[in-house]
Amino acid sequence: MAAVAVAVDTAAADGMDGVEVRGRSPGQEVLLTPAALAFLADLQRRFEPARQQRLADRRRRQAAFDAGALPDFRTDTADIRAADWQVAPLPAALLDRRVEITGPTDPKMVINALNSGASCYMADFEDSTSPTWDNLVAGQRALAQAVAGTLDWMAPDGSKHYVLKPFAQQAVLLVRPRGWHLVEKHVLVDGRPLAAGLFDLGLFAFHNARALAAKDRGPYFYLPKLQTMEEAALWDAVLAQIEAVLGLAHGQLKVTVLIETLPAAFEMDEILHALKDRIVGLNCGRWDYIFSCIKTLRAHPDKVLPERGQVTMTQPFLKAYAELLIRTCHRRRAHAMGGMAAQIPIAGDAAANDAALQRVREDKLREVRVGFDGTWVAHPALIPLARAVFDADMPGPHQQHVARSDVQVARADLLRTPHGSITRAGFDNNVEVCVRYLAAWLDGNGCVPIHWLMEDAATAEIARAQLWQWLHFGDRGAAPLQLDDGTPIDFVLFERALIGLPGKLGGRVRVPGADKLDAAIALLERLTRSATLEEFLTLPAYDLLD
Ligand SMILES: CC(=O)SCCNC(=O)CCNC(=O)[C@H](O)C(C)(C)COP(=O)(O)OP(=O)(O)OC[C@H]1O[C@@H](n2cnc3c(N)ncnc32)[C@H](O)[C@@H]1OP(=O)(O)O
Ligand SMILES: O=CC(=O)O
Ligand SMILES: [Mg+2]
């Protein structure tokens, strides 16, 4: 079977030499002790060369797609897909994951999420966190205090004191570090920024792993935005190193991997295999997946998706991706986790609220009936609804026995482009979402409601990538795209949508990050006018943060 080798720099130094902390935030000295920094620096020195190789592999792969190639199942790993093997047994705390709440890591959110009644809580440093230094330090402190059982929080006006429920009544904690593409510029090792994922995961593990292991709670992680088994193998090597340094058993650290890139959909078995001693499931990260489909196939004129609102999970290419994930996971005795419906409760409008909840209910019903073992919710008020749907259709703790061997997904199924349209409302909405989300993110808020939908980095990326793709469609000689009413999609249309926005938002809507609107507009203009599609909006946006 194809083995995945991770090149490791074994000459990694220990100690504080060459480590510089540039951020200043209250309480950071408790986290960034000399021992913690030495631990992080060691991880960075060992694994940074391999991370850089994986990022270079991504660029090479994308260049091939841009030159006309399409993703496919690998021939060099056919034996991994064909062979019979299973992942390591799942820990008891992760057997029943029917409802998982996700959210950023500020202390109030952490307490609300752990107390929410969900089976699990994914504390998120990725899609829903704007990685200001203050957010990261406060988030790591809140999580460490939560693990220690000492976290509390007082509302600034003194109206409510938030305390944790007893441990046995709390949701099981999982932590999602940032992806391989991001760096943490506030910690330099040998003059270069630390890999953000190593900072988030490493720092959490350093301070909490032993305490969580003693309670038989992992630690557990969600790994975002992977593309290949080699990237999975890199995480596996990092986790094995952390276990060795912290004196934990091999396989103590457990992970769930988000399948949220198009290349990864072709390597689900391989990713499970690369992490088989510690992986407990795959998750359908639908929003990044849609974004990745747009990004990966950006140079293929026959692969343009309709406007965001029309790209739902019932579209055949997304149905195929979800069903392949379930079949693959259950064959390997791993959980198949569903994703996030974007609707959130609507205050002050009962009819609209009922309609939103009905959309969520339908989404969860579809998930449990196709064979998912659990699902995500964005908001605590959605937990009872999701739980009721899963309880009714999933009497046991999971449904790994649902083999879905009826599912046959071919390359063409994953690449089938849905029909649909681009309306003016859809175009304008993409512009508005990008501007409002970027403004909030630059202001330190990584997840906001916009028109009663949860918007985070993944959902905003769809809007941003679509605008770029639609506006640059004619660059390769094709006729420009048109709206469904025949209006050409060009920069005149884009500027028109942008021009009225600050007045409209300032006058009518409470906008988080209102004083960042100009910066957000300037960034969107830059991203959209660029001749090439920026890989992630959070890369240039991070330069503007802090
Ligand atoms: C594509 C993906 O990656 S999905 C995963 C990433 N995205 C997420 O995790 C979404 C997280 N969700 C959120 O951040 C929020 O629900 C939002 C921004 C969508 C809406 O937030 P708000 O407008 O503040 O919601 P609302 O005012 O209704 O909140 C009511 C209460 O629920 C709490 N709450 C809302 N969402 C969450 C959550 N996800 N976790 C914990 N508590 C929450 C609020 O803190 C508030 O608490 P309080 O009554 O004690 O003050
Ligand atoms: O992380 C989840 C997604 O949908 O993206
Ligand atoms: Mg995502």
Structure description:
This protein is an alpha/beta fold and 546 residues long. The chain has two domains: 19-78 and 96-411, Alpha-Beta Barrel (TIM Barrel); 424-543, Malate synthase, domain III (Malate Synthase G, Chain: A, Domain 4, Up-down Bundle). It has helices at 28-31, 34-66, 78-82, 107-114, 133-148, 196-214, 229-246, 262-265, 268-274, 286-296, 316-331, 350-370, 383-393, 411-414, 424-442, 457-471, 491-499, 501-508, 517-529, 538-543, and strands spanning 19-21, 99-103, 120-124, 152-154, 161-163, 172-176, 183-189, 192-195, 220-223, 254-259, 279-284, 335-340, 374-377, 448-450, 453-455. An eight-stranded parallel sheet has the order 6-3-2-13-12-11-10-9. Strands 1-7-8 form a three-stranded antiparallel sheet. A hairpin with a 6-residue loop joins strand 4 (152-154) and strand 5. Helix 2 crosses helix 6, helix 5 (133-148) packs parallel to helix 6 and helix 7 (229-246) packs parallel to helix 9 (268-274). Magnesium ion (MG) is lined by residues 127, 224, 258, 260, 285, 287-288, 458.
